[in-house]
């Protein structure tokens, strides 16, 4: 390969022109990389300037490129990638730059350092700025030490190739405080730019354009620098460097303090500067090799005959991989091989003879840390030694019984591609990394001769450079994800972060309690992430979903009513409230909610609160962002009013005052209310002033912060035309971007969103009725990620789309389908550069727009306000109705979904259950003497003279079936559970009969459960006629004698979710007794005794269920549940009894055989009335 190199001297290249002059021209592509003599392109140059620069394709045109970032270099190297096979090539290159001043010092350790003792002058300002450039081949050393008053100092120290910022608070302080670290692999002999900025307690450290922000301790806020030292630690009073400091070996350029060039002062022998340095920068020659891939290897000749017996090889290497072959050679006389390799980041040696392992050694650990490690291999005089880092990293010895010589070839990193090579066989991974300072028999290998093919052989090596890249610095793992890497890729460990994805970008939590509710969750503690993939961390809150509104509850350290006793020595009582959420989490949660409130109450006796309207308040509270602002109003009043709720309503105990407590009475009274103005929430502190007088007593309570309504979750727009769209400012997601939204449509295709750049773009679209496509281009060609659904997506139901693109991969998820991913190229994506507006529901490229609804659209955790933009956009309507089609299934137990403007609501009026999703069992504990009766309206025509009605009319008025469901728990048998009577003296009863005890004159069906008598029995559908009353455990003279006797025993236990057709008598008695036709006798208390969660496995009572579901049952010996139907017409009473092993009527047998089957699920009983069984 031909390489053209020219010296730029001291020019700062800001643009370049590449042209070609030839009569027979062909396109030329040239890589532009700024170089420094004897070294390789910097990592910054490789990453930011690695794109090739195509030249012109004829002799007349000129191609010009303007670099986006300035490149500072001494040499410019041109590497043509393509040549004209026929014809001659001419090249003209012009570079344009600006003058560049370079003041350099060289530090060689020991006494080589510079000290600047700063006296008050024009360079000292309220903002301290120190900037410099440095380069070194060593991975540790003191770069800069700045000392201020009272011995407080800041240090920039190079440690393992990273720059650390340390704070010391005097010489007597223990270990220094580690503020931050930045950069990596800074020992690469390239110039690195460092800027340290301090203003008050804020400090910024910048290394090569990467910035870390640090908050300094309060004692260092006003500390001005008095002494600056380079290369070592000097104090104000000492003329010699600290002997314990690690001296820097390297060069420093252009040290500026508040704009003043301190190196120039040193050149001019300024009296404030002392030290011993050289004002030049030596260029140590250190040629490195890079083994980039599986085909890389270096072949060197072995030892010569004149060498003493044995072999000695040394080198340094650095890598990120845990494994790889370092070097190998054959033992022809022994028919063996020697391998020195990495495995599990340890150095290992293996020797084979005649196909078997005869020797193994290991040394060192964690050698894949990217640092340079020295390896020495010596085999001489019957002793073999391998050492790491001159023995500091580990050493191992052996005494082989056979001679080890390397008269054949030495192979480093890998083997040639030829198969069945006797000289080189690699049983391990190929080495990927860098090597330098290779020695054979203590003689340095001239790698420049290797590059010139004058020594040895090689394949696919990068010579004169170490191409290692630290992909974890700066870390692309977000939200605290832990970064690890190999030579080619990095990996993010997202465990315990609350985020997921290749770079821990996307939150695993929902953004609000509202979102959890619509996933089908019930009340409980949940982590919410209010900004999704944004910087705010998830927070633990309590979500109360028992009401129509879904409340998010944020607790603080004292929500109880707290007594304040008088204390003459204390004029005021103040209390501060610490919330479980951080400041930014609180403010984001309040901002996102539609409504927030916090209870504030004051109970008082001879303790005034706010005094008069004109006077100064005795008490106040602080609320709002930060430490809060002083608020002089109380719960239920308006901000700034200096009133309580009673003052606003005009019903205070003393109308001359605006608070009850201001009446200053001896009786206990209170001022309570809700604070609802979000700008003043949450309550931060409370100050109570009138508590020191004799006889003064008070108590206060500040409730938890409660918020409901997610303004983002229901934010939607309806696009009624394919040509309609919304537009927003350009989307910025250069390195990582996530987009999430919900859509519903009846159309088969359309573009959800699109944003364009000059070449780059990003787009999400519905490509067909079953496919969503995420496509983008970030400079390396278009990429697509597709998800195919097995069901149509144009079903007018909500579907969720989540797309993410980062430097590792692009992913797309549709609803709960598996995630589709597309890996990024090995070198990673470039920055996504967009410049047009963001189009929602349509495109700038005139593709088919979207017709339907888009809701809760978020880009990188920020919700776009679709509704507000839709209000001013033709063809787009704010909001989107029709949520029950998607969320109606959340309404359980016959609950009915009701549409709302934002969302939906479950109507539980026809259900025996309650709760937000009609999922909460309504239960009550019964004692003997407790009963509930529910009376139906009596039809007027029947009640006038029911006995005069002809039998034909009677039969037409009779219903064919009744649906009954209930749950119970008891240890009582026998017992009557439910009794229903009709206007025609017919009745229906559900009872528990003691096993083996038979009755007479009744139709009884005994069901034996294979479970103990504490499990589930569900569903009963019985034939009966019109009814008038439902009784839970009645006592009546008109009852059948057997039933009357049973009813007189009462019932002790729990009944839950009692349902008869469309009525829920128990729910009506417990929740709506004032408006329902119920009569309650005895104590009836609502409890959770019927809930499955409340069941105690060790208790004597457990829960059984009878509900309207078909199924099966299996039999075992236990108390029987008896369902009885009485048809009374004064002339006939018919009945059967069914028990295990008994003979039953033939018309029941087929039903029993088909319905009673063994099942591990709850027992279901379904009664099918057949006319043949009801004959007298």
From TrEMBL:
Cellular component aspect of the GO annotation: membrane
SUPFAM superfamilies on file: Concanavalin A-like lectins/glucanases, EGF/Laminin, Fibrinogen C-terminal domain-like
Residue ranges constituting the Laminin G domain according to the UniProt record: 104-281, 287-466, 715-880
All copies of domain EGF-like, residue ranges: 468-505, 881-919
Subcellular location: Membrane
PROSITE patterns recorded: EGF_3, FA58C_3, FIBRINOGEN_C_2, LAM_G_DOMAIN
Membrane topology: Single-pass type I membrane protein
Residue intervals of the Fibrinogen C-terminal domain: 504-556
Residue ranges of domain F5/8 type C in the record: 1-98
Domain of life where this protein originates: Eukaryota
UniProt xrefs under SMART domains: EGF, LamG
InterPro entries: ConA-like_dom_sf, EGF, FA58C, Fibrinogen-like_C, Fibrinogen_a/b/g_C_dom, Laminin_G, Neurexin-related_CASP
Family in the record: Belongs to the neurexin family.
Protein name listed in UniProt: Contactin associated protein like 3
Species of provenance: Astatotilapia calliptera (Eastern happy)
Classification lineage: Eukaryota, Metazoa, Chordata, Craniata, Vertebrata
């Amino acid at each position: 390969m031909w390489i053209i190199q020219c010296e730029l001297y001291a020019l700062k290249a800001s643009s370049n022109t590449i042209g070609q002059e030839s009569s027979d021209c062909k396109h030329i592509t040239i890589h532009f990389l700024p170089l420094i003599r004897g070294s390789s392109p910097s990592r910054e140059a490789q990453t930011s300037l690695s794109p090739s620069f195509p030249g012109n394709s004829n002799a007349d045109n000129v191609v010009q490129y303007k670099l986006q970032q300035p490149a500072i270099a001494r040499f410019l190297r041109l590497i043509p990638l393509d040549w004209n096979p026929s014809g001659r090539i001419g090249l003209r290159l012009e570079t344009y730059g600006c003058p560049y001043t370079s003041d350099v010092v060289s530090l060689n350790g020991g006494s080589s350092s510079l000290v600047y003792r700063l006296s008050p002058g024009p360079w000292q300002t309220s903002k301290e700025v120190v900037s410099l450039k440095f380069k070194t081949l060593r991975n540790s050393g003191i770069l800069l030490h700045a000392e201020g008053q009272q011995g407080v100092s800041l240090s920039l120290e190079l440690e393992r190739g990273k720059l650390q910022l340390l704070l010391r608070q005097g010489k007597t302080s223990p270990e220094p405080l580690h503020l931050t670290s930045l950069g990596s692999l800074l020992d690469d002999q390239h110039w690195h730019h460092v800027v340290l900025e301090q203003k008050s307690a804020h400090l910024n450290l910048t290394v090569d354009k990467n910035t870390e922000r640090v908050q300094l301790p309060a004692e260092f806020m006003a500390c001005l620098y008095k002494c600056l030292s380079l290369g070592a630690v000097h104090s104000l009073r000492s003329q010699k460097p600290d002997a314990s400091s690690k001296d820097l070996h390297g060069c420093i350029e252009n040290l500026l303090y508040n704009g003043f060039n301190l190196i120039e002062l040193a050149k001019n022998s300024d009296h404030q500067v002392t030290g011993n340095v050289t004002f030049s920068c030596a260029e140590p020659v250190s040629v490195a090799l890079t083994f980039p891939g599986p085909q890389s290897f270096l072949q060197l000749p072995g030892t010569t005959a004149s060498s003493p017996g044995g072999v000695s090889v040394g080198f340094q290497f650095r890598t990120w991989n845990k494994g790889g072959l370092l070097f190998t050679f054959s033992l022809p006389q022994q028919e063996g091989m020697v391998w020195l390799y990495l495995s599990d980041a340890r150095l290992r040696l293996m020797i084979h003879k005649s196909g078997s392992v005869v020797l193994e050694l290991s040394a060192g650990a964690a050698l894949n840390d990217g640092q340079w490690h020295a390896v020495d291999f010596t085999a001489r005089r019957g002793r073999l030694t391998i050492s790491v880092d001159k023995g500091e990293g580990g050493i191992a010895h052996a005494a082989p019984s056979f001679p080890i010589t390397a008269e054949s070839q030495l192979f480093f990193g890998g083997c040639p591609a030829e198969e069945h090579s006797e000289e080189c066989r690699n049983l391990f991974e190929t080495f990927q990394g860098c090597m330098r300072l290779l020695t054979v028999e203590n003689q340095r290998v001239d790698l420049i001769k290797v590059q010139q093919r004058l020594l040895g052989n090689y394949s696919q090596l990068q010579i004169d450079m170490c191409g290692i890249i630290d992909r974890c610095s700066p870390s692309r793992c977000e939200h605290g994800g832990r970064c690890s890497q190999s030579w080619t890729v990095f990996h993010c460990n997202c465990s315990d972060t609350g985020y997921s994805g290749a770079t821990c970008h996307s939150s695993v939590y929902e953004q609000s309690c509202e979102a959890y509710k619509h996933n089908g969750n019930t009340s409980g503690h949940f982590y919410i992430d209010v900004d999704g993939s944004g910087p705010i961390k998830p927070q633990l809150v309590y979500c109360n979903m028992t009401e129509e509104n879904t409340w998010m509850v944020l607790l603080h350290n004292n929500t109880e009513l707290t007594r304040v006793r008088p204390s003459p020595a204390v004029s005021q009582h103040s209390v501060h409230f610490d919330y479980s959420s951080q400041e930014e989490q609180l403010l984001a949660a309040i901002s996102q909610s539609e409504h927030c409130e916090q209870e504030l109450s004051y109970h008082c006796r001879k303790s005034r609160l706010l005094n008069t309207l004109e006077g100064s308040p005795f008490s106040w509270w602080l609320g709002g962002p930060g430490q809060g602002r002083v608020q002089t109003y109380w719960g239920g009043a308006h901000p700034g009013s200096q009133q309580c709720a009673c003052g606003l309503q005009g019903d205070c105990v003393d109308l001359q005052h605006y608070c009850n407590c201001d009446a200053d009475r001896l009786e206990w009274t209170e001022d309570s209310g809700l604070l609802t103005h979000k700008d003043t929430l949450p309550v931060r502190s409370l100050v109570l002033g009138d508590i020191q007088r004799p006889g003064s007593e008070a108590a206060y309570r500040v409730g938890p912060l409660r918020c409901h309504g997610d303004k983002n979750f229901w934010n939607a727009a309806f696009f009624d035309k394919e040509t309609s769209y919304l537009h927003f400012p350009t989307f910025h997601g250069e390195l990582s971007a996530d987009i999430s939204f919900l859509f519903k449509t009846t159309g088969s295709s359309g573009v959800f969103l699109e944003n364009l750049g000059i070449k780059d773009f990003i787009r999400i679209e519905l490509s067909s009725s079953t496919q969503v496509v995420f496509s983008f281009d970030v400079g390396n060609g278009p990429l697509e990620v597709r998800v195919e659904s097995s069901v149509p997506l144009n079903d007018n139901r909500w579907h969720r789309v989540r797309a993410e693109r980062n430097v590792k991969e692009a992913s797309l998820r549709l609803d709960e389908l598996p995630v589709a991913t597309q890996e990024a190229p090995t070198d990673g994506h470039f920055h996504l550069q967009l410049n047009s507006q963001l189009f929602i529901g349509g495109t700038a490229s005139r593709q088919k727009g979207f017709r339907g609804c888009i809701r809760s659209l978020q880009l990188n955790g920020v919700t776009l306000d679709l509704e507000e933009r839709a209000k001013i956009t033709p063809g787009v309507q704010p909001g989107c109705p029709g949520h029950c089609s998607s969320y109606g299934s959340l309404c359980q137990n016959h609950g009915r979904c009701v549409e709302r403007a934002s969302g939906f609501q479950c109507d539980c009026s026809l259900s025996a259950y309650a709760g937000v999703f009609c999922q909460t069992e309504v239960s009550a504990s019964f004692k003997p003497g407790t009963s509930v009766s529910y009376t139906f309206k009596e039809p007027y025509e029947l009640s006038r003279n029911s006995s005069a009605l002809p039998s034909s009319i009677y039969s037409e008025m009779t219903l064919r079936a009744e649906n009954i469901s209930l749950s119970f728990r008891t240890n009582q048998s026998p017992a009557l559970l439910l009794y229903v009577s009709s206007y025609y003296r017919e009745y229906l009863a559900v009872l528990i009969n003691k096993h083996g005890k038979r009755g007479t004159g009744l139709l009884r069906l005994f069901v034996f459960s294979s479970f103990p008598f504490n499990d589930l029995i569900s569903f009963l559908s019985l034939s009966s006629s019109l009814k008038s009353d439902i009784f839970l455990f009645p006592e009546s003279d008109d009852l059948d004698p057997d039933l009357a006797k049973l009813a007189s025993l009462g019932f002790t236990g729990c009944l839950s979710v009692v349902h008869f057709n469309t009525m829920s008598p128990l729910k009506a008695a417990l929740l709506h007794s004032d408006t329902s036709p119920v009569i309650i006798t005895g104590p009836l208390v609502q409890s959770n005794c019927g809930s499955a969660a409340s069941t105690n496995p060790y208790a004597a009572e457990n829960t059984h269920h009878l509900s309207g579901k078909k199924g099966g049952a299996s039999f075992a010996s236990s108390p029987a549940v008896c369902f009885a139907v009485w048809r009374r017409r004064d002339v006939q009473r018919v009945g059967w009894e069914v028990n295990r092993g008994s003979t039953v009527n033939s018309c029941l047998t087929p039903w029993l055989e088909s319905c009673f089957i063994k099942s591990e699920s709850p027992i279901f009983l379904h009664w099918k009335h057949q006319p043949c069984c009801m004959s007298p």
